[in-house]
Design goal:
The protein is α+β, with helices and mostly antiparallel strands. It is 28% helix and 35% strand.
Length: 179
């Protein structure tokens, strides 16, 4: 009776531990909102953590009444922030040269999508310029690009499950040898 209860407990524990990292995974992405003269600008990256390389984003503009701005004449530029770094003083490099981002219309009105190719880790400034030429407005968004690496939570959980399975197998083998 005790052995059956122990086996059921261990089996349930294995199922819970193997599924739990999926519950902690974020699917929402990173969104930043700013308001300038009543216009709400939203920058949403598809991934929660920005990494060097290509990162997909969505940009949307809403007026004071929360209605989408469709004729915004939007332009997005991206550059590495050199305000706290002395590397920018020595001249322009491929990493800190501002990039103009190509935009496509999104699935909703007032929404635009694009891809930013971050060259390195660090703080980047995403600048949006919208409105008519004589009345253009700028909104700066900070993007912190981090080195991508392994997810130690998932690796740890799966390692724990493997060790638990090995321990149970060793205990069962000892019991079958004694019998």
């Amino acid at each position: 009776m005790k052995l059956k209860t122990l086996k059921n407990f261990v089996f349930t524990l294995i199922l819970v531990l193997s599924v739990s990292p999926l519950a902690f995974a974020s699917t929402t992405g990173t969104q930043t909102n700013k308001v300038v003269d009543g216009v709400k600008a939203s920058l949403t990256f598809k991934n929660e953590k920005l990494k060097p390389g290509k990162n997909e984003f969505t940009f949307s503009l809403l007026d004071k009444n929360e209605k989408p701005l469709t004729n915004a004449n939007l332009k997005i530029t991206v550059a590495m922030d050199n305000s706290t770094d002395m590397k920018g003083m020595s001249g322009m490099t491929a990493e800190n040269t501002p990039m103009i981002i190509a935009l496509k219309k999104g699935s909703k009105k007032g929404e635009y999508t694009g891809m930013i190719d971050f060259k390195s880790t660090g703080k980047w400034i995403v600048t949006s310029t919208f409105g008519l030429q004589e009345n253009a407005k700028n909104v700066d968004f900070n993007a912190n690009v981090q080195k991508s690496g392994p997810n130690f939570l998932i690796i740890g959980v799966f390692s724990g499950v493997v060790v638990l399975i090995l321990v149970i197998a060793a205990i069962n083998k000892k019991k079958s040898i004694k019998s």
